Amino acid sequence: MDKAEIWIDQGINFIVDFGPKIIGAVLIFLVGSWIIKKIIGASRKVMSKGSYDESLQRFLLNLASWALKVLLIIVVVSTLGVNVTTFAAVIAAAGLAVGLALQGSLSNFAGGVLIMIFRPYKIGDLIEAQGVIGVVKGIEIFTTKLVTPQNKLAIIPNGAMANGNIINYTEEGKIRVDTTVGVGYGEDIKKAKEVLLQVLTSNPKVLKDPAPSVNVSELADSSVNFAVRPFCEPKDYWDVYFGTLEDCKLALDKAGIEIPYPHRVQIQKNS
Q1: Residue 265 clears pLDDT 60, i.e. is over it
Q2: Selection from 117, 119, 151 nearest residue 133 by Cα
Q3: Phi, psi dihedral angles at 32 (to 5 degrees)
Q4: Distance separating alpha carbons of residues 125 and 166, to the nearest angstrom
Q5: Which uninterrupted H or E stretch holds 7?
Q6: Bridge-partner residues for 179, per DSSP?
Q7: Other CB atoms closer than 10 Å to residue 156's CB: what's the count?
Q8: Measured between alpha carbons, how far is 31 from 36 in angstroms, rounded to an integer?
Q9: pLDDT tens digits for 60-99?
Q10: Distance, CA of 48 to CA of 79 (rounded, Å)
Q11: Can you tell me the distance from the alpha carbon of 141 to that of 162, in angstroms, rounded to the nearest whole number?
Q12: How far is residue 230's CA from residue 208's CA, in Å, rounded to a whole number?
């Protein structure tokens, strides 16, 4: 009975000493969580009305949400009577250990932050980076996702993206399609040039400004080569590229202009 009375007294003392703190901490946590939810919701509405793209919104809102939650935990722990300085030191030590173990991930996270700040590309852009060409499908905290022309999903770490060369084909809104078409040396090159230029100007996906161009680029071994250069919107690149080659072949055939091909001469020596 004496031990039971001691335990009951200790329990009562604990409730008296820490009960208000625990209740206060719970109330602070509940109210703080509600306030954080409202702040994030309001921020999302403000960003939606602005010029922020979807990836940037998610990145900033997640970052803000985690920062506010960490601050709330520190306040709750402080309400319970825990020394905040000691608690912060423990968090810092744990953060250092995790940081050393995840150096690559932190580098990718930092790369993601830089991409979000400087925005060298956005979702929907056609870019070339790290030896991959594709349309940006998503920009996440650690990686960037590209869809290649072969409809393959390429996932590239943001650290490499932030520190490497990036070619953005969409940013300027126009892209030049480079193709080469050859005709025989015996053909009228002025007529051939007119036929090729007509192919470009009749294609609705070829832009009028800048105007397409056709120029002699090389006097090759067996052909006079023309640099056929239409401009188009980035999304139409492959349609214009393949369409130009096919239409040029058909138009030259119709005009009776020869497209030469390499000839192989075989010499036999009689013994």
Answers
A1: no
A2: 151
A3: -60, -40
A4: 12
A5: helix 2-49
A6: 228
A7: 19
A8: 9
A9: 777 778 778 878 887 777 777 666 666 566 666 655 555 5
A10: 36
A11: 12
A12: 9
| Short-list 22, 112, 26, 98, CA closest to 63 | 112
Residue 57's nearest CA partner among 43, 36, 71 is: 43
DSSP letter string, 225-237: EEEEE-EE-GGGH
Task: For residues 21 and 146, give the distance between their C-alpha atoms in angstroms, rounded to a whole number.
Answer: 51
Evaluate the omega torsion of the peptide bond into residue 210 and state whether it is cis, within 30 degrees of 0. Answer: yes
Side chain identity at 142, as an amino acid letter? F
| 220/240 Cα distance (integer angstroms) | 25
pLDDT in tens, 18-54: 667 777 778 888 888 888 888 888 877 777 776 666 6
Mark residue 85 as left, alpha or beta (left: phi above 0; alpha: psi -120 to 50; beta: remaining).
alpha
CA atoms in the 13 A half-sphere facing the CB of 212: 31
Question: Can you read off the two tokens belonging to residue 64?
Answer: 């803000």
Angle at 156 between CA 152 and CA 162, to 5 degrees: 140
Cα separation, 247 vs 244, in Å, equals 5
Question: Which neighbouring-strand residues pair with 126?
Answer: 135
Identify the CA nearest to 133 among candidates 118, 119, 150.
150
Contacts (Cβ under 8 Å, ≥6 apart) of 198: 251
Number of neighbours of residue 170 by Cβ within 10 angstroms: 19
**Sign of the C-alpha dihedral computed for residues 174, 178, 183 and 189 taken in this order:** positive
In the block, residue with structure tokens 């001469």: 265
